[in-house]
Design a protein that fits this description.
With 407 residues, the protein is of the alpha/beta class. The chain folds into two domains: 7-206, UDP-n-acetylglucosamine1-carboxyvinyl-transferase, Chain (Alpha-beta prism); 220-394, Alpha-beta prism (UDP-n-acetylglucosamine1-carboxyvinyl-transferase, Chain), CATH 3.65.10. It has helices spanning 7-16, 33-45, 70-73, 83-90, 109-117, 151-162, 177-189, 220-232, 248-256, 294-302, 321-327, 357-369, 379-385, 389-394; strands spanning 24-27, 48-52, 55-59, 67-68, 92-96, 121-125, 128-132, 140-142, 167-171, 192-194, 200-204, 213-215, 236-240, 260-264, 267-271, 281-283, 307-312, 331-335, 338-342, 347-348, 351-353, 370-371, 375-377. Strand 8, helix 6 and strand 9 (167-171) form a beta-alpha-beta unit. The radius of gyration is 21 Å and the shape is globular. The structure holds ligand EPZ.
């Protein structure tokens, strides 16, 4: 089965389309509700998006809007990535303050620090972030925070800097493949960027960008979820489109856990013929183990042989799934930013509710390893970021049926 395009790559790239008047065509777009929400944000700004199959055409025209409203930003925090393009194109952006979310506090200080360094003034008025800049200007910016680099702050500064005269140096830039995809998209639009994929990105401002046709990278988090799914049912799965270079830490941990991962041409084969061994995991910015696979890995560790410690170094509060996994018989104790998981011989199927996107996938995986039936509620979270996950999992021999959808 084939991995869909990366949700976390397409969202900032959709926002980046605002950097030109010309239409852009984006291929390999996943059918997930976050993409629909971003299309709605662009529409409210005056740009037009049309999705046909997995091809999305965005026509910004001479869009006039500068406001990303509360009802949309509260639905999807990634809405914040219109901030950089709006400032660069319109000299003004009003984006609803995102606030915290279920995976813990999610500050935006690094976004603001970066844009201020480029010359923007930023104020908070009536729950909105109001940013203004008559003319952005290239600058040297250190974007490291208490939890390391920031994916979307790097994206925002990168997008704004493409049209800012002079040189911008982003130090402690995020190195995630989704940032690289955004940089490649911008370069194709005519931006001058070097160093993306590393911690120091250099941007030479240009006066205008043009529309392009671009293909989104495969979703490494979906690929990782499928790999862990194969491991949890003792299966044998070939995942087309999964890129080993995006999944190094995941492959390493699965191998340590006794799961075989074979790199084929353009795909990965995952085989779990031996009992899964408990391994310790610490989430970190790329190339570390991704926080977006921590919950799924916890489901696997819940049925492994031995005891494992899963430590969150990106979102120390991202443990909402523990209580639901425990309802299925998992033995998990939380100690601050770590979870101590004692593997049990079997989980027992139960009605559970997904608290967030990645937890929804983790609970499906746990249900696959559990006896009897598991009924998952909160499917609207799953639909935000996974395209057709249940159909992809059926090839592992599990029975999955969608009874109803909340969206
Ligand atoms: C992106 O969010 C992803 N979202 C998240 O995916 C992912 O979990 C996260 O990166 C980390 O990999 C999208 O790409 C749309 P960060 P982002 O800024 O960019 C702290 C999923 O399940 N921080 O890289 O918002 C922050 O609190 C989602 O698909 C600051 O301190 O995350 C965290 O501890 C959920 N100040 C760390 O940095 C800031 O201004 C990394 O967050 C910004 C972030």
């Amino acid at each position: 089965m084939t991995v869909s395009g990366a949700k976390n790559a397409v969202l900032p790239i959709m926002a980046a389309c605002l950097l030109s008047d010309e239409p852009s065509i984006i291929d390999n777009v996943p059918h997930v509700t976050d993409v629909v929400t971003m299309m709605e944000i662009l529409r409210r700004l005056g740009a037009f998006g049309a999705l046909s199959g997995d091809r999305l055409t965005i026509t910004p025209g001479r869009f006039q809007g500068t406001v990303a409203p509360y009802d949309l930003v509260s639905r999807m925090r990634a809405s914040i990535c219109v901030l950089g393009p709006l400032l660069a194109r319109k000299g003004k952006a009003q984006v609803s303050m995102p606030g915290g979310c279920v995976i813990g506090p999610r500050p935006i200080d690094l976004h603001l620090k970066g844009l201020q360094a480029l010359g923007a003034s930023v104020a908070v008025e009536h729950g909105y972030l109001v940013a203004e800049a008559k003319q952005l200007k290239g600058a040297r910016i250190h974007l490291g925070g208490a939890f390391g680099s920031s994916v979307l702050a790097t994206g925002n500064v990168l997008m704004a800097a493409t049209l800012a005269p002079g040189t911008t140096l982003i130090e402690h830039a995020a190195c995630e493949p989704e940032v690289v995809d955004l940089a490649n998209f911008l370069i194709q639009m005519g931006a001058r960027i070097e160093g993306h994929g590393g911690p120091l990105i250099r941007v030479e401002g240009v006066s205008a960008l043009h529309g392009v046709t671009y293909r989104i990278i495969p979703d490494r988090i979906e690929a990782g979820t499928l790999m862990i799914a194969a491991a949890i049912v003792g299966g044998d799965l070939v995942i087309d489109g999964a890129r080993a270079e995006h999944l190094g830490a995941v492959i390493d941990k699965l191998c340590e856990a006794n799961v075989q991962v074979e790199k084929l041409n353009g795909s990965l084969r995952v085989r779990a013929t031996q009992p899964v061994r408990a391994v310790d995991i610490t989430t970190l910015p790329f190339p570390g183990f991704p926080t977006d696979l921590q919950a799924q890995m916890m489901a696997l560790m819940a049925v492994s042989q031995g005891m494992s410690v899963l430590t969150e170094k990106v979102y120390p509060e991202r443990f909402m799934h523990i209580s639901e996994l425990s309802r299925m018989g998992a033995s998990i104790a939380r100690e601050g930013a770590s979870a101590i998981v004692r593997g049990v011989a079997r989980l027992s199927g139960a009605p559970v509710t997904a608290p967030d996107l990645r937890a929804s996938a983790a609970l499906i995986l746990a249900g696959m390893a559990a006896d009897n039936q598991t009924e998952l509620g909160g499917l609207e979270h799953l639909e935000r970021g996974y395209h057709d996950l249940e159909r992809k999992l059926v090839s592992l021999g599990v029975e999955l049926e969608r009874i109803s959808s909340n969206t």
